[in-house]
Amino acid sequence: MVKINTLNISPPLINSSCAWASDLEQLTALYESSFTGAVTTRTATLEGFQENPSHTVAFTKSAVSSINSYGYSPHRLAQYLSWVKELLKPSPGAQPKKPFILSITSYDPAKLRTMVQDIQDLRAELGDSTAQSSSIAIELNTSCPNIPSSPPTGYVFPSLIPLLTVLKEEHAKDSSLTIGLKLPPFVYRDQFLAVIDGIKTLCLPGDSDSASSNANCPFAFFTCTNTLGNSLLFDEQSTRPASSGEEASPFAVPTGLGGVAGDALHALALGNVYTFAQLLREPANAVLQGISIIGVGGVTSKAAADRMRRAGAVVVGCATLLGKEGVRAFEIIGGEEGQK
Ligand SMILES: Cc1cc2nc3c(=O)[nH]c(=O)nc-3n(C[C@H](O)[C@H](O)[C@H](O)COP(=O)(O)O)c2cc1C
């Protein structure tokens, strides 16, 4: 079992936020799988995101990779809150609870605050703030590469500070609220340092003993990484069925450009996990020592999950394999030893 602030994740294998964690049926299957230790929901906004046929996904013919052009979930946060409430409701003979990580995003601090408060209202209703372990956490998605004219905020870290300040203030009111950040794949060291420096400005100075319990830092985890944007695959490289009803396109996704994931992302995702793990261990960053890393990107086999752990992840997640295999993905990655 892995403990991240107030979350207990057992086994330490989860789905990452994605289009296959979008509706109640998908979330129920993920929740009921004995191979997942937590369920991450697709990124929700306050009002819902308008999807059109250009938002889609394709898999590659060789290796287990994907390219997608999706934005955020068409379902509003309120919808996820009602589904999560339904799934967490105790029922006779039901499996023990596992936590939900609610992926949310906004560019507007006021809207983000409303979203966090809505989540906190549900946690209060469920007695989650006072429970021994929490069933609801927040992951702020800072890294969707597919929103026209809105670059992933994680790449311009100082621009995120107003949003992160909202999270800091809400965490200060209730430290049982577990908050993480979904980060984009970074490609050079200064980008990692910008995250570390930015987060440090939001932490209280304090001794490293209490830092390890997230007492001084509002953030409990980094999920590394999201897809690599501005990628391109041609139609003949993908397995998208010709009869999918979409207009003929020379590209794997109609937008041409999209976010690549799966095997094609693995080396970069490992490098991101490794770099953050090293930086978080540095004595100068002691106040951040309570931050755990959820390793995501090309986890398509047990060996890949093991590599993520060797690189520094305490929990491992996947999306592309889930899209290809359904919840059986977690059996493939976790194997017998992964079962609770
Ligand atoms: C079809 C699809 C939809 C995704 N949607 C989201 C999303 O809504 N929010 C998010 O934070 N990440 C999203 N992701 C990124 C995944 O969570 C993950 O970070 C990325 O795909 C790398 O993991 P993988 O190699 O296991 O696919 C999506 C990925 C895919 C393939």
TrEMBL record:
Q: Set out the biological process GO terms recorded for this chain's protein.
A: 'de novo' pyrimidine nucleobase biosynthetic process; 'de novo' UMP biosynthetic process
Q: In which pathway does it act?
A: Pyrimidine metabolism; UMP biosynthesis via de novo pathway
User: Which keywords are on file for this protein?
Assistant: Flavoprotein, FMN, Oxidoreductase, Pyrimidine biosynthesis
InterPro entries in UniProt: Aldolase_TIM, DHO_dehydrogenase, Dihydro_DH_chainA_dom2, Dihydroorotate_DH_1_2, Dihydroorotate_DH_cat
Per the record, its GO cellular-component terms are: cytoplasm
> Is Oxidoreductase a UniProt keyword of this protein?
yes
Q: Name one GO molecular function term.
A: dihydroorotate dehydrogenase activity
Which metal ions or organic cofactors does this protein require, according to UniProt? FMN
Q: Enumerate the spans annotated as Dihydroorotate dehydrogenase catalytic domain.
A: 2-333
Q: Is the keyword Cytoplasm in the record?
A: no
Pfam families the UniProt entry points to: DHO_dh
This chain's protein is named Dihydroorotate oxidase
